[in-house]
Amino acid sequence: MIAEELAAWAAGLNPAEADRELADRALLDTVAVAVAGRDEPVVRHAAALPETVRWAVAAHVLDFDDLHMESTTHISAVCVPAVLAAGGGAHAYLAAAGVMARLGAALGWPHYSRGWHATTTAGAPAAAVGAGVALGLDADRLATAMALAVPAAGGVQRAFGTDAKSLQVGFAAEAGVRAARLAAAGAGADPAALDQWLDLVGGDPKALDLSGPAVPGGLAVKIYPCCYALQRPISALAELDIDPAQVSRIVIRTPAGTVTPLTHHRPDTGLQGKFSLEYAAATALLDDHQGIAAFTDEAVRRPEARRLMELVESELAPGGDHLLAGEFDAEVHTGDDVLRVRSEFPPGSPQRPPTRDELLRKAADCLAGTSLDAESIGWPSAGRLLREHLRTDHTGEEHAWRD
């Protein structure tokens, strides 16, 4: 059974130094983006929910968190909060991340292209493993925890561009912690439930591969706070030295599969802009820095951004089975001139991993206005830091309700 295979792998994991370096990088990146997202409205809406939900929502709401390309899952936004909430560290994170990467790969691109949110489908069982390892569960109990997480292993892409997307991630992380705690308390479940679930959602058990490093393929770190499908278009178009006021036409060519999650063609909010190819072109040409400020409601509603969005034409080639398939090609027309740009791998991708300085610069941007020092974020302190910076006192609301 799949749950038993994955549980045995997780229980016997012996991380290499490169694995631990990946875990430390993922922790820093995830805590930084969670702190940056702490004041988003959806985090306040979730104030009364368990801390795992709040942490995961904050880590994902800006769409600035890392991505595992082979599974199309945001591994750390689920696994870091689940592990920290259970008192775990790098080892438990790597067990969870490894299970999520492998489950996501077994689900495959067809699962994602049909509209499932793979981060949440693969995320709930993986969070159960991470929390379970943190709680000291053996392989049998880990398999039970995964089965107990199956009822929460859902989520759809229709949520993209709305509060529901980050909330789905929070629910997946919390479901894993809940399942692990139930398994630790002695609750029972049939591990074969994971096999049945995988079949129902269109996964391929033969694609499950337990070989290789803890997280096969590594993790892609985002340079821009938006869907990973926009990292390549933004980085490519931002290279052009051009007066946006002179632009009369923008033609984009890319495989159809690379724009699967980009469902908002005329966005009206910052959240929708994070899933808009048209807005990606606009901010790349308009803004010197495509950071958090470029994806606010006000930024998306700028008249000059709206004008540029109307000029975007997409020519999508058939195929493309992942977000960096093929090449991104664009031409920007200005009067009699046509500027062309082409890109295969954006900065931050596994093929162009971020340097330590790049990671620290991103963290500094995310932590601006706080007392946090990026260099001081470590596994023993991360949970405390998140509690301090995401703490919400809603006692008054509770008293008002009781009155």
TrEMBL record:
<dbReference type="InterPro" id="IPR045336">
    <property type="entry name" value="MmgE_PrpD_N"/>
</dbReference>
<feature type="domain" description="MmgE/PrpD N-terminal">
    <location>
        <begin position="56"/>
        <end position="195"/>
    </location>
</feature>
<dbReference type="InterPro" id="IPR045337">
    <property type="entry name" value="MmgE_PrpD_C"/>
</dbReference>
<feature type="domain" description="MmgE/PrpD C-terminal">
    <location>
        <begin position="224"/>
        <end position="369"/>
    </location>
</feature>
<dbReference type="InterPro" id="IPR042188">
    <property type="entry name" value="MmgE/PrpD_sf_2"/>
</dbReference>
<comment type="similarity">
    <text>Belongs to the PrpD family.</text>
</comment>
<protein>
    <recommendedName>
        <fullName>2-methylcitrate dehydratase</fullName>
    </recommendedName>
</protein>
<dbReference type="Pfam" id="PF19305">
    <property type="entry name" value="MmgE_PrpD_C"/>
</dbReference>
<dbReference type="InterPro" id="IPR042183">
    <property type="entry name" value="MmgE/PrpD_sf_1"/>
</dbReference>
<dbReference type="InterPro" id="IPR005656">
    <property type="entry name" value="MmgE_PrpD"/>
</dbReference>
<dbReference type="InterPro" id="IPR036148">
    <property type="entry name" value="MmgE/PrpD_sf"/>
</dbReference>
<dbReference type="GO" id="GO:0016829">
    <property type="term" value="F:lyase activity"/>
</dbReference>
<dbReference type="Pfam" id="PF03972">
    <property type="entry name" value="MmgE_PrpD_N"/>
</dbReference>
